[in-house]
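Treating backbone geometry as a discrete language has practical consequences that deserve illustration. The sequence in question and its structure tokens are set out directly beneath this paragraph.
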Amino acid sequence: MPQQIALVVEDSPEFTRLATALLTAEGFRVVHSATGEHGVEAARRHAPELVLLDVTLPGLDGIEVCRQIREFSDCYVVMVTARTDELDRVLGLTMGADDYVTKPFSPRELTARIRAMRRRPRAAAPSDLRVFGDLTVDPVAREARLGDQVLSLTKIEYDILDLLTGTPRRTFERAQLMSTVWGGDWATDDHVIDVHVANLRKKLGESASAQRFIRTMRGVGYRFEPSPTDQPAPALR
């Protein structure tokens, strides 16, 4: 199996050395870019599995870099920021980041988050194809289609959809979603789940005020609830 690549987009030499050592210990081959523009180019050229992306960069800032990377890649994107403003974190997640950490952070915590993301299962039996009206979820291909269009989902957006559609009408608490999708050895705040679900809803052509597939269970979490005309079709073999 070829060695996976991690891209560090950061203009601080100190953080770059720390991140490179951490990611090398996790088995990655690490490449580095010091500006936003070069980070986008490096993501195109190297097709990394993981991008550690600083928010404050020369040229393009990290939020714009994340937006551009999401136009061609579903790699894991973890934003690293010294800012504590919630708006910055929400913007990063809205642009497609999978997670964020705030400087200063614990290397052990970042390592745990990366390991949790990489542990998520990637395959399922072919008979698990799920069809709900014009929505099709294929766990083997890790692909979702709405009508004839393949949805451009991030890894975490797909994993949330996969989990919810695996057991329609089951309500998942936010803590259950975080534990299953991210892994059980670290915790994040509930708002991360809410932003990822909002992004997923937008790609499914719905919203919190016009729910079709994903229902908000107030004070609890979310569930996938197809309408009577969206009943799952028999599994295709």
